[in-house]
Amino acid sequence: MSSRRSRSRQSGVSTEITDAQITDLVSKLQQLIPELRARRSDKVSASKVLQETCNYIKNLHREVDDLSDRLSELLANTDSNSAQAAIIRSLLM
Amino acid sequence: MSSLQSNADSTNSEPLQRSNPKKRRKIGHTNSPTLVPWRSDTQQRIYSSKLAHALRHVLRRNHPPPPAKSNTGREVRETADRVLAATAKGRTRWSRAILASPLNRWKLRRMHKKVRKAATGLAKRSPETRRRLPVVQKKARVLGRLVPGCRKLSFPNLLEEATDYISALEMQVRAMTALTELLTGGTSHASA
Question: What is the pTM of this model?
Answer without folding.
Answer: 0.69
